[in-house]
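Contributing: when you submit paired examples, paste them exactly as shown. First protein:
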Amino acid sequence: MDHTESRDGTAGTDERTDDPQATPEPEPTPEPESAKKRPRPWVRRLRRTALVLALLLIVPLVAIETTLRINYMGDPADGTYTRNRDAMWLGHAWVDGRKKDADVTALAGRLKDTGVRDLYVHTGPLEHDGTLPKSVYPRARWFIDAVHRELPGVRVQAFLGDVLANGGPEGLELSDAETRAEVVRSAGQVLDTGYEGVHLDLEPLHSGDEDYLGLLDDLRKVTGSRDAQLSVAAHQIDPLPHLHSVAGFVADHPKWWSQKFFGQVARRVDQIAVMSYDTARLFESTYGGYVAQQTSLALEVTPPTTHLLMGLPFYYESNPSHWGHAETVAAAVRGARLGLSRTDPDRELFGLAPYIDFAATETNWKEFEEGWVR
């Protein structure tokens, strides 16, 4: 076998892999940019569509939130404080036997130096056929008498509510004439008990419901003949034109009424209380701006002879429809004052309505009294 001698004197083969003069292997030629793999056409179209949809959702949302934040700016006008025409929603415990004389005394102490002059005490719920068993409010007469004793001049109204059939498989059917007639009879029944008004809360109520308007006309005849109040809890008003139509298409529980329908309801009642909470606003400033907007929209279509009230969230929850850190009483009060200042600062038939007594915190009461009570 033939061998060659390596540089270090050891035997080696004829291969010259260590030879510095050996010719290197050529570098691979880069693939042209145009030859690189591109996304398929349908992938590109999907990406563009996703971008457009994101912009369509994000841009209006940012615009709305910015508008509401601006709407919360500025100072309320002097004198936009309580007109001593406020109201409050109360729970069912006041009429079913759970509350005692000491509880009424404590309630009176809490309300004495505020402007609350109407109490909406939960007396239902109505049965789905519109009837109201007397067994569900056995202590109503006791409560009415106790309030008159402890809080002279404060009215007690029967808060009657039910879920409507359009919100699920069961509920009160407003399109049924006999059901509406039973609701009217139930109203007369509570007035016979001694209540000084009927407060109706039917949800979810679609904007433009003619059967509801007809029911209010019939109820007004009953309350009017007895010199009693007819009041209702109202949905919020479209913050954008025709938003109630979009909500009604997407969900069975529309949050908004058209401003026109709100005005139609307001003209049929003595008091209308806007449920201006559960707004899904993320920030205290945008919630306050939303309440200011709602106040202005409501004032524009509520006749001066109808008492308008803006609801306050006297409770704390955190969920997609109600963020407790944002929906504060302080923001709601300031928002209502701003809306009042800009639209009708001298209006007398205006007030605020806390919801609800059994969930109220000391912070709720403090913010209400400091921001509104003078």
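Second protein:
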Amino acid sequence: MSTSKRDIMIRSKRYSFLISKKAIIITLSLLLALILMMIISTGVGSITIKPLNVIKAVFGYGTDSSTMIVRTLRLPRVIVAVLIGASLGVAGAILQGIVRNPLTSPDTIGTTGGATLGAVSFFFFFSDKLSIHWLPVAAILGAFLATLLVYLFSWKNGITPLRLVLIGTGLTAAMSAVSYLMMLTGPIVLAQQSLTFMTGSIYGVSWAKAVYPLLPWVAVLIPVIFFYARHITIQSLGEDIAQSVGSQVQRQRFLLIMLSVALAGAAVAFGGAISFIGLMAPHISRKLVGPSFGSLIPVSALTGSLLLLVADLCGRSLFKPHDIPAGVFTAAIGAPIFIYVLYRSRNRG
């Protein structure tokens, strides 16, 4: 296979990637922007810490007070925002590739709705019996069960992308109705906890409760998905083309959906139902690096992290002393983008 001077071929015994130099430059630029945004976000708060002092505090060379503020209070929140944003961005990229629709995201195939219903059910039926540490388990189980239901209901001599989205949208609406019903009929305290989760917030996270449990999901699954990038690219070309090149379409589609659900379910479990990141990040990334998933996966991860970091920073700095959930800002940014993408798709049709 010939390559131009603008492309770089990476080969191994089992895998090969063709990555453009432009994509590498954009990826490195986004990585630098993410690091700078992490430093800025860590320094902003009721007590402002200069960027240089933030760096010193991270490595243990700051004052006692700045080190405590940075390493104990702010850095876990920033890292969780990065991990959740990356997870949702990559999960959305997978689904948009499989379904071949730029409007697809974990919100539309039941993953987010299932995780939310699992969490709300935990609040109302198990919060007085089990430790709050079991909440992520309930959310992840809810995400998997809901997606499996969507998959089973969509099966008819295989899965078609259109059936998957239509049934996912319907089941999401039903699960949302059940969640709100439990909120309206239950105790006010549990309703407030559920509402915060349904809005999406990373307030009050810590190393032990969020960073350490979430990190393995991201550190393992995103590299695995990167090595499956060529399968996503083949799926995005359509079922007929995928079958003609020897791809096991249904098997690969199921595996990729499960990888997407695992990432999105873990993200929702620790950050709540933060909406639109899975829609916005892949769409923006596709504009930057094109449709090749070898480039799109890392760029979607970085873009999702940046979007959520900015949303969280706005939530805790624009309306002091109130801490507005990050999900409010992602929805405010995502809704216009959703309308724009819908309008563009309509014109193409």
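If you have annotations for the second protein, write them as plain sentences, like these:
The chain has a mean pLDDT of 85.
The two ends are 34 Å apart (CA to CA).
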